[in-house]
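Dear support,

We are seeing what looks like truncated structure output for some complexes. This example has two components. We would appreciate it if you could run it in full and send us the complete token output so we can diff it against ours.
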Amino acid sequence: MLLAKTLTSLTFKLALIAIATFGVIVSVIFTYVYLSTTAYVRSRSDRAIVTESSSLRDAYEKSGRDALIDLIRQRTSDRSFAGHVYALADPSSTLLGGNLAKWPSEPSRPSGWTEFRAAVPLPNAADPPLVRAMLETFPSGDRLLVGRDISDLDSFTAQIKLAVISGVALIFLLAMMASILVTRRTVARIEQINATSRAIMQTGLDKRIPLRGTHDEWDRVAENLNLMLERIETLMGEVKQVSDNVAHDLRTPLTRMRGRLEKAYHGARNSEADQLLIGDTIADLDAVLRIFSSITRIAQIETQARKDAFRNVNLVEIACEVVELYDAAAEQDGTRLSVTGAREAMVTGDRDLIFDAIANLVDNAIKHGRGGGKVVVAIENGDGGPLISIADDGPGIPPDEREHVFKRFYRLEQSRYTPGNGLGLSLVAAVARLHGARIEMLDNAPGLQFNLRFAPPVG
Amino acid sequence: MTGSHRRILVVEDDPETAGQLLEQLTSSGYQVDLASTGDEALSRGATCDYAVITIDRMLPDIDGIAVMRQLRDDGIAAPFLIISALGEVDDRVRGLRAGGDDYLVKPFSFLELLARLEALGRRSDTIAKETILRVGDLAIDLISRTASRRGKEILLLPREFQLLEYLARNEGHVVSRAMLLQHVWDLHFDPSTNIIDVYVGRLRRKVDDQQAYPLIHTVRGVGYCLRAPG
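Here is the complete output from our reference environment:
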């Protein structure tokens, strides 16, 4: 199974291509080495034959046939000339001297190089030798053959040939094994990821790719994929939570409306009661529509589609407008609402969205703060960029609940029955994310301080 | 407002919505022409002088904005009220930039539509040249930016003055909360709280407390109306 996957994998195919290319290059180099080695060895042997042949010719020309026959006899009995082949024949091919049993039949040419296998072995040799020789015909018609036993040479080149071929074969074999091993490893890791993907598709998002603890690139890929899965799982969980909450928050007014209408449908017409009923129903419908448009608004902000509407805006100006708008509401609540800090703090962003976010925070601070307390909006130009904080002196939020308040529809138990749809802080979070602003929640002792840290304005 | 200025063209492709609008607008004293496609809107809009044209953005043949542009190019000056299910600010801004005069998001309350139609219809014929607006015994001085009732000055914050001025300019007509947010605060979204009511409540205390009669009236389900009795 794994082997089949290994052999069909892309990595293995790439390895094969690499091996083939490498193999061709190695073969060319080895062939060159083989050819040049054999050519060198042969040319050395040929030079020795030429030298010997010319010294014998000199002897013939200076001192005549008999002197040459003597010289040949001397040479054939000399051990240092072992492996040499000599033959002198008259024009009728009758042997006059030398160590060949008979004049070779093959060399019919008058002069030049020839190769033949001798009929009988040379002295001190087991097999009839392979001879390479040079032929010379004297003006008198006598013919001289000087050569050497090249059997050794032949087996030497054969050995080189064998070494070269087996070397190439070995390299191929090793490369093949190495690539199978490497590919197998790769395929095994990929197969692990594939298996996890299949398991996720079949059962659920809770599966993770096993790590080997080697901290290699495969572990890093697996780690990142696992992180991604974790994030997706969290988001899916949130979506489920949101849809549960949406269902709950929408179902409540819808159920009320349905019950009311059903009762009126079966009851007798009563214009005064009907009018009241219709008015209440419209108010409930409006609440449903508001939740609906809040959700789509947050979704739209989260797609980051609005960034092209960004301008440089003064945070202080927006904060003052928000405070002015909420002035009356604070007054009604007996809360003192004020702005302090810098006179100007520029950020790059969308005025309406920033207004909405600050308005939500101020609204929360007034609603959840202490009646008769104070809410302070402060703006300062920090090192990292402008910072706006909204602080109340109410009961605050317990530290372990702070991270949950940004979830859509999340509402603290204590505020379950104050007006609001639980989407305000989700909107603040979405706006902050869009603007690259960081949200902090601090204990104002007593109360809650909400910080929005913006990035410095662009340009 | 003259008879010819009560004529409205409603461009709407959903027959039920169109029927409801026809019925309600007619009973509010308007003469209503209906167009269900862009082509029909173009031919009707070019042949008749309307007080207001309401146009749906999603029409079966041509985009409502294209219809609006075409009619503007043909020299039609009637104000356009864009009605759309595309509610986000970007769509609003695009619609207004293309020549729309106001924008209403579906679904809307009929009273809201009526308030906006009234405001748009007025815009074409009453552009006040006065420096003092009077409603009953209330006088609003637009130069010194002060308000008084029976000669006694009412102390107002600048935004409260703007709010009162806007209400006075629409004297006797209903203005919705969304219209107030849009024209007084320049905000194009619904903060989804009762913040406007609280704000108007405070203005009302300043203007109406210990007076002979109230001027600021709440209109249930829509918004507010500034009017003197009688």
